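ENCODED BACKBONE
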Amino acid sequence: MTDTLNPRDTLDVTALRHPDSLKWTQYPEDVIPMWVADMDFPVAPPIMRALHERLDAGLGYAQLRGDTRLKDALLPKLAAQGLDGLTHENVTFLPGVVPGIYAAVHALTTPASRS
C-alpha cells in the first residue's frame, strides 16, 4: 500500500454507488448529488494502516483511564499550543462532539442561564 493517491481515482461514481451510501443510492443514476461528504473520498493509506494495526492488536472495553499512548502523543501538542500543565489525569476523552458540547455548556454556564 502506498501513501499517495491517484487524483483520477478519488471520485469514481461507480465505486461511490454502493449499497451502504445513502447519498449515492437515494437518487436515480442520472442525478449527481452535489452535497460534499467525506465518505466520497478514499481513506488515506496511513489512516487505513493505523486502523488495521489497531484491529490486529485486538479489541476490548476501553480503558477507563483513556488511551495512554494517545495522551502521550496529545499532551506535547497541547502544550505547544499553550495548554501546558495538563496531565494524563486531567485529560478525558468523550464519545463524540455532542457530549463535548453538552459538557462545555454545563461547565461554563449556570443552571439559571440554561433555561
The chain has a mean pLDDT of 83. The CA atoms of residues 38 and 114 lie 34 Å apart. The radius of gyration is 20 Å. The chain is about 40% helix and 0% strand.
